Amino acid sequence: MRTFAAIFKKMIKFRQILICKKLIFTLLFSYGLLTGQSQQEGQGAQHTESADHAAQDAHPGQEGHHEFDPASTAFHHISDQNIYSIGPFNIPLPCLLYTKGQGWDIFSSSRFGFDGYGHGDGHKAYQQFVLHEGQVMRVQDPSFPTDEVEIQGFTAKEEADDKGKKIEIPYVLYQGHEYRLDKKSTADGGLFGGGLTSFYDFSLGKNAISMLIVCLLLGWMFISIAGTYRRNPGRAPKGLQNMMEMVILFIRDEVAKPFIGAKWEKFFPFLLSLFFFILGLNLFGQVPFFGGSNVTGNLSVTMVLALLAFILTTVNGNKHYWQHILWMPGVPAWVKTILTPVEILGIFIKPLTLMLRLFANITAGHMTLVVFVSLIFIFGKSGQNVPASLGASVGSGLLSIFMMAIELLVAFIQAYVFTLLTASYLGAATEEHHHAEEKPH
Amino acid sequence: MTGSIAAIGMGLAVIGAGIGVGTIGGKAMEAIARQPEAVGDIRANMILTAALVEGAALIALLLSYLSA
Predict the structure, then answer these.
(1) Fewer CB within a 10 Å sphere, N or C end of chain B?
(2) Beta-carbon separation of B66 and A191 below 8 A
(3) What is the mean pLDDT of residues B20-29?
(4) HEC per residue, chain A
């Protein structure tokens, strides 16, 4: 009992320190948020000015063409990029590109000559590749020079695709001509507006770099904790070890044991890796001004995680599991004809929802934050109305802090839910037969 | 005004999921009030059920996104 009391006292002390730190952090954070936003505002103002100039030069009298579009801004900010932005500063990343018929191109994205401070538009083209809003794109036209050339800027045109839907196609300006740009190939088969184009992007982008950073961080953390356990076995844990032990015990006692049952030890390492990987990436994406990476809000990443859960469930499914799917015992035959297709569909729907849940929750959080920041530009008319944008800065700053607090909660809940559902699917697949009531006595 | 009718479908699906998650949360609160010692079990099952209901809304989101 006495040790408990001591730990409790310690915890109270620790909490006081934490609260103090929290206050200071909140103040610093809100200051950073406001100044960061005013910087962005400045950029927004410059943007409109140049946009207005361009509009006057190109189409005199045409208004409303360069209106601020929060949806496209949000999509731009949650997508993978070929540069890493810390605050407003851009860091180049390696590019690894494959073009059909031309082979591989490996170079650093600093070749594109983008500004170290700004929005990630390159001033140079290299090997017919350009950097537009942080993403590598390729010039389709073969008459475009292949070596390093200066480009004059970017523009966009609305065109109808084969389904008649209007989409914006980016163009690059070079020596008075406009060249159509290809985005990188995506594997969605055109479902999400992507599809196969003339090149593939295998670069170590922002998302991959964030993933590596998180993996190194997790690896360092757990190796150091394992070392502490080895050095003083049987002693009360302290510090980081204490915190992690609490989380690991929670996963063991609340997730693995009740939902998997007898065979929980076999799947426990997988569940823990899943939980800490997702949690780490969720939290890393929350750090303000540090890239704002959206790794768990990327369908490819969540798809691989869900695929792992699917493979493990399918491989480890015992005969009762398959019997319950293919020919459910204890129900009339005509019900079985309905149940079997539904159950077979269920095998695939389960990992699909795992994938979509994590993706949608994290993406929605990131997008909401960007939209809250966009309120400044909407109310301030992209910097033309300074008092309104100042007022909106305060409001959207507070809203953003509120949203980040909710997102912190979501980061934990989604990591927990993903682990919990994987555990319950694994439990359903490995459960032993215990339907005593079915057997006739 | 631009947009597609898929957005309305998504909204309807969200209404359904909202009612579902609300009911789950409310019932879980009642259950916890009745049996405070079972709070751990109730919470785990509540989150599990809410996640399943959310799955239906997410499938609707995907379908509306594809048909938009």
Answers:
(1) N
(2) yes
(3) 95
(4) CHHHHHHHHHHHHHHHHHHHHHHHHHHHHHHHHHHHHHHHHHHHHHHHHHHHHHHHHHCCCCCCCCCCCHHHHHHHHHCCCCEEEECCEEEECEEEEEECCCEEEEEEHHHHCCCCECCCCCCEEECCEEEECCEEEEECCCCCCCCCEECCEEEEEEEECCCCCEEEEEEEEECCEEEEEECCCCCCCCCCCCCCCCEEECCCCHHHHHHHHHHHHHHHHHHHHHHHHHHCCCCCCCCHHHHHHHHHHHHHHHHHHHHHCCCHHHHHHHHHHHHHHHHHHHHHCCCCCECCCCCCCCHHHHHHHHHHHHHHHHHHCCHHHHHHHHCCCCCCHHHHHHHHHHHHHHHHHHHHHHHHHHHHHHHHHHHHHHHHHHHHHHHCCCCCCHHHHHHHHHHHHHHHHHHHHHHHHHHHHHHHHHHHHHHHHHHHHHCCCCCHHHCCC
pLDDT digits (tens, 9 = 90+) for A98-140: 888 788 888 888 888 888 777 778 888 888 888 888 888 888 8
ipTM: 0.77
- Within-domain flag for A77: no
- List, for residues B38-63, the tens digit of each pLDDT value: 998 898 889 888 888 887 887 787 77
The answer to whether the Cβ–Cβ distance between A417 and B40 falls below 8 Å is: no
For chain A, the domain total comes to: 2
Chain B nearest-CA residue for A189: B66
**Pairing state between β A199-201 and A94-99:** antiparallel
A242 and A176 within one domain: no
Least confident of A256-260, A344-348, A382-386: A382-386
Nearest chain B Cα distance for residue A75, angstroms: 14
Q: What residues of B are in contact with residue A421 (Cβ under 8 Å)?
A: 48, 51
Per-residue pLDDT of A206-233, as tens digits, reads: 899 999 999 999 999 999 998 888 888 8
Using an 8 Å CB-CB cutoff, list chain B residues near A352.
59
Are A397 and A265 within one domain? yes
* Chain A nearest CA to B37, separation (Å): 15
A352 touches B at CB < 8 Å: yes
Burial class (CB in 10 A: 0-12, 13-18, 19+), A294: buried
Q: Which domain covers residue A129, as residue numbers?
A: 90-204
Do A338 and A414 sit in the same domain of this protein?
yes
Residue A254 covered by a domain: yes
Res A311: pLDDT = 95
The answer to whether residues A214 and A98 belong to one domain is no
Q: Are B59 and A349 in contact (CB < 8 Å)?
A: yes
Judge if A148 and A217 occupy the same domain.
no
